[in-house]
Amino acid sequence: MVSKDQAIGGAILLVCTVVAVLYLVALFGYSWLITVIPVLNIASVEAVRYWLIAIPVLVAFVAILFIGAWIGWTMATTPPPKPIEEITTEIEDKQEEPEPETPATEEATTEEKPTKKKK
């Protein structure tokens, strides 16, 4: 049986393949298509080819601008990091401070480890 992710992947593959084939046929075979299907003769071949190229370029251009705007918004709203000098002084201060020693109790030192009993 096919999992849900595999089914979605197969559907995406099928849709992308069909769209790619239709795009290529429309781009390069439109003049042949209008002779076979006269209803498609609503626009000139040059106009159809222009829009078949212009629309994907427009979508890609807007997507790149959206990504750039997203990066700019993220940079504008993110607080700046601490200066390196401040970080190094914090590290040096932590190294200079001695750690408090925990006094050892007699119970902890005299306690023996349990041994395994033989049967």
Characterization of this structure:
This protein is mainly α and 119 residues long. The protein has a domain at 4-80. Helix content is 70%, strand content 0%. The longest helix is centred in the middle third of the chain and has 33 residues, at 45-77. It is elongated. The model has no long low-confidence stretch (mean pLDDT 81).
Tags for this model:
mainly alpha, 119 residues
Brief account:
With 119 residues, the protein is mainly alpha-helical. It has helices at 4-28, 30-36, 45-77, 84-96, 106-110. The mean pLDDT is 81.
Number of helices: 5
The percent of residues in helical segments reads 55-70%
Q: In sequence order, what are the helices and strands, one letter per element?
A: HHHHH
Overall body shape: elongated
- Rg from alpha-carbon coordinates: 35 Å
Strand content: under 5%
Mean pLDDT rating: 81
Distance linking N and C termini: 54 Å
What is the number of E strands? 0
Task: Kindly name the structural category.
Answer: mainly alpha
Q: Unreliable runs, pLDDT <50, ≥5 residues?
A: none
Biggest sheet features: none
Secondary structure topology:
Blueprint: H1 4-28, H2 30-36, H3 45-77, H4 84-96, H5 106-110
Helix pairs in contact: 1-3
